[in-house]
Amino acid sequence: MSVKYKIAQLSLVILAGLSTYPGACTAIDKRSFISDDDRFMALRDAAYHDDPKNAEQHAAALTSYDIPSYVDYYRIRSHLLRASNTEIADFINHYEGSAIADRMRNDWLSLLGKHGNWDLFDQQYPLFVVADDNQLRCYALLSKAVKGQKVSNEAKNLLTAPRDYGEGCYSLITYLTDNGQFTKADLWTQMRMAAENGAQPLAQRLGKLLDIPEKKVSVVFDKPAKMFKQGPENSQSSRELFVVALGRIAKNEPSDAAELLSRFSTKLSDEQRSNGWAQIALQSALKLEPEALAYWVRADGASFSNEAYQWRVRTALREGDWKLVKNGINAMPATLKNEPTWTYWLGRALKAEGKADEARRIFASIADQIHFYGQLSLEENGQKIGVPVVARPISAEELAPMEKNPNLQRALRFYAMNLRTEGHREWNWELRKLNERQYLAAAELARKNNLLDRMVNTSDRTKGELDFSQRYPTPFNESMYKTTQALGLDMAWVYGLIRQESRFIMTAKSQVGASGLMQIMPATARYVAKKMGLGNFVPEQVNDVDTNIVLGTNYLNMVLTDLGGSQALASAAYNAGPGRPRAWRAKLTRPVEGAIFAETIPFNETRGYVKNVLSNATYYAALFEKKPQSLKARLGTVVPKGMSASDADLPDEIKQ
Fold first, then answer.
1. Is there a contact between 374 and 633 (Cβ–Cβ < 8 Å)?
2. How far apart are CA 556 and CA 549, in angstroms?
3. Partners of 637 in beta bridges
4. 378: three-class secondary structure by DSSP
5. For residues 102 and 107, what is the distance between their CA atoms, to the nearest angstrom?
C-alpha cells in the first residue's frame, strides 16, 4: 500500500470522526486534502454512507477531476433513495454506453422494481447490459406476472438458491402465490430448500403465505426435536413441517432423523415420505456417511433441490455405485446435467457399463476445454495434458490501441488508487467488446502494469488463441525455485496454489485476514515461523514476498507430510485446515481415486479450490517439464488411514 493511499485512508478516518459533530461539513475544506484523489475517496465514502451533505461538498470541489462520471455517480448515489427518476435518467443519458451508466441503471432498476413502477422498469431492463443481478431477474418475472403472463415455470427455474433471494424474489413468490401461479406444494418445496440452506428469514416469509405462525417456524429451525414428541398432527401443514424438521434434525444426526421418519412414516403420504428421506439423505451425504446411499434409494420420487440432485450422485461416486451415478445424472435438470462436471461423470458411468464408444463421444465433447474435467476427459480418451500451441505474440501495433483505450486506462487509474471494484467494472466492461486477439493484447497491457490477476483472467477468456505465458505466469521464479528445491516440494503445485489463492496479487488480503501471494493467516504465519526458528518474526513480515513464499511453502510441506504425500488432501488442508480433510478421509470405506475424493468434498469452496489448484499444477508442470502430464496421477488415490492401497482395492483404471 502506498504512503499516499495510507494518508488518504487516514484522512477518511478523520473525516468520519468529524462528521459525527454538528457543523462538521463546514470544518472540511480543500486544505484538508492532499490531492483530488484524496477528496474523491472521501466522496466515495460519503456516498456509501448515505451522506449527501458531504458528498455534495466534495463533488463541488472536483469539477475538474479527470473521472467526472464517477464524481456524478457518487454524488447521486449518496441520496439515491430520494433521487428523482429525472435526475437518474439524465445521468444515464449523459454517460450512456459507459460502465458506470450501466451500474446506475442497475441501481435504478432495483428501485423501480421495489416501487412497482413496471412501465419504466420494462423500458429500462432490456437496456441493462451486464444483466447479472438475480433480484432484477425476479423483478422482471414479477413485472410479467403483473401484466397477466404465466411465469411459474420460469420462476421455479430461477428460485433455486435461497441465500441469493432478497426483496425482489420474496415479492415474486408472494405475488405468484396470491395469484394462483404458485401452489402450496411449490411453497413447501421452497420451505424445504430454505431449511436445507439455513435461510430462516425466507422460511418466515413462506410461513406467512402458508398461514404458519412465526413461532412455529422458529421452533422447526431452532428446536426441531419439539416437533417429534407426538409425531405430526393430522393436517397437511403439520405433516409438511414434520418433513422440514426432519432435515433440521438430520443436520446434527441423520440416523436420529431416519429413526423418527421410520417411526411416524404411516402418518405421511408417499410423497412426504420420499421428501423426508431426501432431506435426511442430503444431510447424511454432506457428512460423507455411507448410509446416505440407502437414504437416497428411499428418497426416489422426491422433489429434489439442485444440491440434492448433485449430492445423490456424489454419494454414489463415493460408494462406487455407477448405476446410480448414471441414473442420478440423467434425472438432473438440463442446466445441471450439461455442466462439464456431470458430463464427465456421465461418461465415466457409461464406461463402467462397458459402453466405451458412447463414453468416448461424451469425453470428446469437453476434452478441449481448459479446466479440471476437460483435462480428465482428455486422459480418458487416451491422451496426456500438454501446453497448446502458443498464439502469435502480441505486436506493438496490437498493444497500442489498448494503451490508448479510455476504459482500460480508467481501470488502470482505479487500480493505482487500490479501488479494485471500480477497476474491475471498467476493465470487464471493455472486455465485452473485444475479440480474442484483443483479449491477449489487453492481457499484455495488464502484464506491463504488473496486474497479473487481470492478465490471467483476461487471457483465460480465449478459446482459440491461447497464450499460456499469460494464463500461467511464474513471477518471483528465482525465489520460488530456491525455496521449493530446498524443501523438495513440487514447484508446479505451489504455483498452481498461488494462482488459485491470490491470482498473484502481492497485497491480496482475504476477508478473514489471510495475506499475500500464498494467503497466509496470521496464526499460521506465527506457527510456521516458530517451527522454522524465525525468532525475530513479526506479523507484518508476511507481506514481504520472499517471506510469504518461505512461510507458505513450509506450511504446505508440513500438511503434505502430515497427509501422506497426497496433493489432493494437502490442497484441501491448505484451504480448509488439516483437520477437515483428515475427517473426510476417515469417512471413506475404501480407497477412491483422487478425482472422486475432490468431487465429494462437502465444502463448496474447498471442492472448487482443490480441483482448480491441481488443474493449474498440471498445466504448470507441462510448462516446466516441457512434456505432457497426467492429472489423474497427480490426484492419485486417497486411502482411508490404516487401510492398504493394494491393487485388489482399486478400480481397474487406477491399477494401470
1. no
2. 10
3. 593
4. helix
5. 9
Distance CA 319, CA 295 (A): 13
508 SS3 class: coil
- C-alpha 88: how far from chain center: 32
The Cα–Cα gap between 318 and 596 comes to 6
Q: How far apart are CA 515 and CA 577, in angstroms?
A: 16
Give the whole-angstrom CA distance, residue 577 versus residue 560: 12
**What is the Cβ-side half-sphere exposure of residue 533, based on CA atoms within 13 angstroms?**
0
Report the mean per-residue pLDDT for the chain.
Answer: 91
DSSP state of 390: P
Q: What contacts 311, CB < 8 A, 6 or more positions away?
A: 281, 282, 285, 286, 292
Cα-to-chain-centroid distance, residue 637? 27
Contact between 174 and 149 (Cβ < 8 Å): no
Amino acid at 381: N
Compute and round to an integer the Cα radius of gyration of the chain. Answer: 28
Q: Which residue has the cell 411453497?
A: 187
Say if CB 42 and CB 12 are below 8 A apart. Answer: yes
Length of the chain: 656
How do residues 133-179 score in pLDDT, each as one tens digit? Answer: 999 999 999 999 999 999 999 999 999 999 889 899 999 999 999 99
CA distance 579 to 593: 20
pLDDT of residue 26: 36
pTM value is: 0.91
| CB atoms inside a 10 Å sphere around CB 166 | 15
**Alpha-helix runs per DSSP H in 353-405:** 356-364, 372-380, 396-404
Question: Which residue is listed with cell 481397474?
Answer: 652
Distance of alpha carbon 431 from alpha carbon 444, whole angstroms: 13
CA 254 centroid distance within chain: 27
